[in-house]
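quick one, 424 residues, struct below
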Amino acid sequence: MIDEILLATFVISIFTFVFWTVLGFMPERRHKLKNHPHISVVVPAHDEESVIEETVRSILDSDYPGRVEVVVVDDGSKDRTGDIVSKMASEDERLRLIETDHLGKALAVNRGVEECSGEIVAFLDADSQLAGDALSNLAAPFSDPKVGAVSGIIRVVINRNPLVWFQDFEYILSSMWRYIFDKLGCTYVLPGFAAFRREALVNVGLFCTDTLSEDFDIGLKLHKAGWRLVMSKAVMYTNVPQTVGGLARQRFRWGRGTVQVIRKHWDMVLNPRYGFIGLYGLPNQIYFFVQSFFILPITFYQIFGGYMRWYVAHGNYLSLTVLQYFFASFSMYGTLQFIYNTLSGVWPMTPIFPYFIVSYILNMLYNFLSVERIGRLNLRILLVIFFLFPYYLLTLVYFVLPFLLEVLPWTRMGGHINIWEKNR
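---
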């Protein structure tokens, strides 16, 4: 049974990475900035005194040639966020502060939309900074009157924390995933950095509070209303959780929010009326959850089952050999060793081995293509790829547990659930 599940996984993986790699090499869609519409940048914030000034400065220092308005919505902060923004606003008329009474992110953003005046409304998380040309890149696709929203590339603010390095590589893969889907006309996720045509936002009733993923929900609402969504090369740098606990809180929120949105828009799944979004995009996102329920138990069974059979059964609980075994199991070294020993005849070749090696090679090619398209290859990236497997397993856990919490009726969330939660 395990071999059959692995075989199916490898076959799906081969198809996926061939398909995505071909799309990744296709020419990029070019957007020319034909005019300079008035842009309002709404920054929802809650207890962001340590980062809010840098975030606002990055917007005000943008090289966008048109009119820029910045609206910070301080949603019930208990720290100095409001004071910092108020002082900055007194020195720059392009900046305004709006204070709300802890409404939650979605309602805070809606308040910002109601108060701003731009034809284009961009949203930026309060712990992020824009690249200098980001607003120009976001504005360019709106030359097409059918475009209702434009997303960008999210990168991570790097420090010496290895957990941050893994998240940066994950964000590269995530941005590449959205880049690939954009080639299919299949952009529908608008993460913490996106711009909207104000008319489109009003048309769909702004953001809803009934999911934890308002950026995913709004994308599907816009598609249902007939608007086009595209991805641009605009870059934003964001601060990410610095601890495993903070990462878990963030990913639980994302995971539950994704399930909530898919349940809310279930009528789009496998519905040809919505093109590639219904036929491929949403089913692909559901597959991420499904595979987790198979990959996690099989992986732990093989790794810890081998430990029990080959070491514990012989009284060897901890030794240099055991440490070498786990090092190989949780790094690229073990995979390369497995491939070499199998091809050289040291270990027997199983029927699924050819599928595994093709899948693995294609996966690596796609990873390096992602780095080339979205980031830049360096020693840090190479180290992350070498030790990626444990982090990959951790992300699978963050698919399984939120899915269970949202499927089980007694733990399912409902009502106004779009609230602030700090992940640091």
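The CA atoms of residues 71 and 115 lie 8 Å apart.
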